[in-house]
Amino acid sequence: MTAAQNEMEAKLLDALSKLDEVELVIFSQGAKAMKEGRLSTDGFEDRVIGLLKRYRAGEDVTLGDLSFA
Question: In terms of C-beta distances under 8 Å and separation of at least 24 residues, what long-range contacts does 3-10 make, across chains too?
Answer without folding.
Answer: none
